[in-house]
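Our preliminary data section would be incomplete without showing what the modeling component actually yields. Below, a chain of 191 amino acids is followed by its predicted structure, encoded as tokens that our downstream tools consume directly.
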Amino acid sequence: KLVLDKGERGLTDAVELDDCQFHQCVRLNEFDSDRTISFIPPDGEFELMKYRSTSNVNLPLKVLPTVREIGTSQVSYIVSIKTNFNNKLSATNVVLRIPTPLNTTTVDCKVANGKAKYVPAENVIVWKIPRIQGGQECTLSGTAQLTATTHRQAWARPPIDVDFQVLMFTASGILVRFLKVFEKSNYHSIK
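Predicted structure:
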């Protein structure tokens, strides 16, 4: 376990990383002494650091689904998505994939933000929202019509899948304070 202190205030604002792996170009002795990541980059694109954090994680989006089965012929949906970050940031390319029962025939859904449509081949409602600002909440409401089946089988209710991007946001709280680049005049990159 690695603990990174966010400031002068002590461990209350610290970021805990459970697994931390650096690229082989990182000078580990400098990181161990003052938490500075110093390295000579290899040519091309590379991954400098990988980490995993399981405590004090601030998830950027919260999905609040209310799914009710109405008899054997309908399922009603009210799915809200809330942002959990500063209003100066925004989530982009947000796509929710909301599962429907296998015997769904049609879905009527309404959204104020983005577009939603039923994809019968995948048994999901796909809700695409181009951008959600921090502090915003969006809601989908809909009803799925079901065909009658000879034997009633319990619906497993698979999880809702959410894809999105939030630039300049880390759920762990880790951040880059500054970046210094020292360029040696005799360095020649290999292309």
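The longest strand covers residues 61-70. Residues 21 and 50 are 5 Å apart (CA to CA). Preliminary results of this kind motivate Aim 1 of the renewal.
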